Amino acid sequence: MQQGLFPNRKIMLTVCALASALPAVALPATASAQVVKVQSNPNSLILDAADVKAGTDMIFLSGQLASPVAPPAAGAAPDFGDTKTQTISVLKKIKALLEARGYTMDDLIKLTLFVAADPKLGKMDFAGANDGFKMFFKTAENPSTVARSTFQVAALVAPQFLIEIEAIAAKKR
């Protein structure tokens, strides 16, 4: 007598019943998407982490460079300013890019700063980058902040650039 693939029909029915119930357990109904900013020290300039739940809208911005401080005089090289000035310029660009896509600076969760040495100082101006950063985060307009990494680099795409910033933003749908 041939018993087939499932010799015990009762076990087969139990397995099928469990398998049909699993998706409801493993994949709960979509909860509201959320972004949780984790900061163990409220006085810290940056977050410890950003926890982005599934179903959250995200945007990844390529590295942004500063714009010239003012249009250069005829034949003169453009002036991009010091590290603080360039940080402000780059963060203004990031703000505009975010706003054009329906995001705010509060939606930023991660920044990566690439900072080159300022030839006038002979070293990286970390304090200048932080001073520019403080104008956009932990302010009356934007009381939040972001997770952040800062790297000193040998050079950026051209010698006049002292900082490049990549950004990731996330928001509830």
Write the layout of secondary structure elements.
Blueprint (H helix, E strand, L loop, with lengths): L8 H18 L8 E4 L10 E4 L4 E8 L18 H18 L7 E11 L4 E2 L1 H8 L13 E7 L9 E9 L2
Task: Give a brief description.
The protein is α+β, with helices and mostly antiparallel strands. It is built from 3 helices and 7 strands, in the order H-E-E-E-H-E-E-H-E-E.
Give a verbal description of the structure.
With 173 residues, the chain is α+β, with helices and mostly antiparallel strands. It has a single domain (35-171), classed as 60s Ribosomal Protein L30, Chain: A (2-Layer Sandwich). Helix content is 25%, strand content 26%. It has helices at residues 9-26, 83-100, 126-133, and strands at residues 35-38, 49-52, 57-64, 108-118, 123-124, 147-153, 163-171. A hairpin with a 4-residue loop joins strand 4 and strand 5. It is globular, with a radius of gyration of 25 Å.
Fourth-level CATH superfamily: RutC-like
**β-sheet strand percentage:** 25-35%
Output the CATH topology.
60s Ribosomal Protein L30, Chain: A
Which class best fits the helix and strand makeup? alpha+beta
Largest sheet: 5 strands, mixed
CATH level 1 name:
Alpha Beta
Q: How many distinct helices?
A: 3
**Average pLDDT level:** 85
- Please trace the helix and strand order, writing H or E for each element: HEEEHEEHEE
Measured as a percent range, the helix fraction is: 25-40%
CATH architecture designation: 2-Layer Sandwich
Q: How far is the N terminus from the C terminus? A: 59 Å
Outline: globular
Gyration radius from CA atoms, angstroms: 25 Å
- Number-wise, the strands total 7
Question: How many individual domains?
Answer: 1
Give the assembly state of these chains.
Answer: single chain
Low-confidence parts: 9-32
